[in-house]
């Protein structure tokens, strides 16, 4: 059990009542929120508010590395912290995780377990820490921390009790959100598998007919090949999306030249563009500053945007790739001169499995590429937007943090 060794204080019962009333409100929000990023933000905002601290953070276990990783913070851009893994052994958060007991640190600088690398990379000075485990069904999934009691105060037993109560609800909500994301995606995937599987079943039955002309037989074999490739791509993309949405996908972030990557991606898709006589223009990309991110994941996102811009362009059309620095972020845009997206479909283009209806060729994709692309950008702390006009073209824009 946790034993409180802080100063004796008269308990502020009116404050406690307000805290628990607020906890009830937060609990109702947690039980109704299944979007993981929104859920984590609600938890840390409530943690800082209820303990009257300058900041709060959540660290969750990374199953791939066996270390704790920052998933949400109130005081620092999480993208900057996502590169820092906190070891289980020898750290304050690791001790909370392994013992599943709360810890109060009144002077973080004097504690050898304090992972000072976080402070040095974020310019945030941690003075005091209250940390509690996030436990669901006797299993610890991470740690919730409140940092720096305001006005130089010290953490109290009531702070511990309050944060433990919040953490108990938060842990269940986090586990449920992860399970929902996986089950929701599985349900959607099963539904989407019906169409290619039905096509494969019908085609295979037709191929068994002895009176089928050879040219039709060749055509149906091609259909089987195309649908099989589509199934393979869909399953791969579903796995990619599930990892990103559940937080299990890990990004190896480091500074790199995005303009150079754009040029590399253009080279990859050039044969496809040439086959449709589509010209690709790289504009305003030379001399741009480095960005910080996972080069491989950003390449995956760029290739998706470029191949879509080629696929849905007109014969002999053009693609323009541009870049500029806006509000300390690098904003890139991929614009095509293609058929465009109808206004009623525009709000749904980033939805999983959504394909714009009644457009020739659009129904052949998996409907997952843009959902994955946007998730990759959001996982880097950026945003992806789309603008389009029918018969004029479409522009996808995204932003990434500068190195």
Parts with pLDDT < 50 across at least 5 consecutive residues = 3-8, 359-363
Rg over alpha carbons: 26 Å
Number of strands: 13
Strand order of the largest sheet: 3-2-1-6-5-4
| H/E element sequence | HHEEHEHEHEEHHEHEEHEEHEE
Largest sheet: 6 strands, antiparallel
Helix content: 40-55%
N- and C-termini, Cα separation: 44 Å
Q: If helices are DSSP runs of H or I spanning 4 or more residues, what is the number of helices?
A: 10
- Give the averaged pLDDT, no decimals: 83
Structure classification: alpha+beta
Approximately how much beta-strand content do the residues carry?
Answer: 15-25%
Main attributes?
45% helix; 403 residues; disordered N terminus; alpha+beta
Give the topology.
Layout: H1 13-31, H2 36-51, E1 53-62, E2 67-73, H3 78-81, E3 85-86, H4 92-99, E4 103-105, H5 117-122, E5 129-136, E6 139-149, H6 157-207, H7 214-246, E7 254-256, H8 258-275, E8 279-283, E9 291-293, H9 295-311, E10 318-326, E11 329-336, H10 369-379, E12 384-389, E13 393-401
Parallel strand pairs: 8-10
Antiparallel strand pairs: 1-2, 1-6, 2-3, 4-5, 5-6, 7-9, 10-11, 11-13, 12-13
Helix pairs in contact: 1-2, 1-6, 2-6, 6-7, 7-10, 8-9, 9-10
